[in-house]
Request: fold
Amino acid sequence: MGGLSFLESTVLAVPLELVLIPYLLANRHRLWWIATLVTLGCLLGAFCGYLAGMVAYNTLGTWMIEQFGWQQLAQDFEREIRQNGFLAVLLVGITPVPFQIAMLTAGASGYSLPLFLLAAGISRGIRYFGLALLVFLFGERVEELLKKWRIRKRTVIALMLLLALGLTIVFALIP
Reply:
């Protein structure tokens, strides 16, 4: 799963959650280990994507953005990272916006690598450990609800955003 997470964060434009939820359900005894590996795989991919943006944005980066039709997203994120840096990376890591855009643009713009990796780790950790927590708390009911109500990926991500917002507010209030 760590390798799949690496691929999802670098070259695959398919959300890992589609595979991760059933995998977590089948391996509940290793939930936290799996969430850790997936987060680390994503961070390794984020580091590689950042480097690709820093070194080869004008060739590999623009080719990838064009292949997936992300030109407008890339322009919007470039403007956002100049204005809000850390928060921009944090939000892209939680939302359904392709994370490759954040990696490539952060590297190309020279945004701080440690801050980028911190924001990526927090945001992707919220996603992956949040899913592990849902499986831990609700187990099979998560899968039943997803099938019964045909909850879409965006609904799950919206719930994760609410969780992330709540955590951000809590951490902002801690002195």
